[in-house]
Specification:
By secondary structure, the chain is of the alpha+beta class. 25% of the residues lie in helices and 34% in strands.
C-alpha cells in the first residue's frame, strides 16, 4: 500500500446545483464534498462497501467542523486532501483540506470524528485488526505532518475572546 502524507486522491468540480444565491458554492455542498472525500479515504483504508456488506461494519460521523477560507465558484476544480490526526480501535479523527485545484489556494477545511459501528446491533465496536494495521501504517506517516492550525477549533460567541 502506497501511503501519501497527506492522502491526496479526491478530485471534484463545483457543480451548477451547488451554487447559491450569492453566486458561490453553498455551505451544504462543502460538507457534501468533504463527505465524498471521506468515502475515498475510507475506501483506501478498507472501510468500503465490500467491507460493510461482508461484515456489517461501518462508520458514523459524530462530530465535524468546517472553516470557510475562500469562495469557490461553478466549474472550479477541487482537490481535497485528508490527514489522519488520531485513531484507536473504535474512533477515527481526521482532517480534510479543500484546495482550488488550478489556483492552489485553500478554500475550506473540515475536521471529523467518526465511530466504527456494528450495524447489526447499531453500537460502537472495534475495527478488525486488518483495518487497524492499515491505520497504523498511515499514522506512521501522518504523525510527522504538522497539525493544521484549524484543527481543534470550536465556535465561540462574540463576547468570547479568541
Amino acid at each position: 500500500m502506497v501511503i501519501e502524507a497527506p492522502f491526496d486522491q479526491h478530485r471534484a468540480e463545483v457543480r451548477p446545483e451547488w451554487i447559491d444565491q450569492n453566486g458561490h458554492m453553498n455551505v451544504a455542498y462543502y460538507v457534501l464534498a468533504f463527505d465524498h472525500a471521506t468515502d475515498v479515504f475510507f475506501d483506501y483504508i478498507g472501510l468500503d462497501d465490500d467491507y460493510r456488506n461482508r461484515t456489517g461494519g461501518s462508520t458514523f460521523a459524530v462530530e465535524s467542523y468546517v472553516t470557510y477560507q475562500r469562495e469557490v465558484m461553478q466549474g472550479d476544480p477541487l482537490r481535497i486532501t485528508t490527514q489522519l490526526l488520531a485513531y484507536d480501535s473504535k474512533r477515527l479523527h481526521f482532517f480534510h483540506q479543500m484546495y482550488h485545484a488550478r489556483d492552489g489556494y485553500l478554500a475550506a477545511t473540515s475536521e471529523w470524528l467518526n465511530l466504527h459501528i456494528d450495524l447489526n446491533i447499531r453500537r460502537v465496536s472495534p475495527m478488525p485488526d486488518a483495518i487497524q494495521e492499515r491505520l497504523a501504517a498511515i499514522w506512521a506517516k501522518h504523525k510527522t505532518l504538522a497539525v493544521p492550525k484549524e484543527a481543534g477549533r470550536s465556535v465561540r460567541g462574540l463576547d468570547q475572546p479568541r
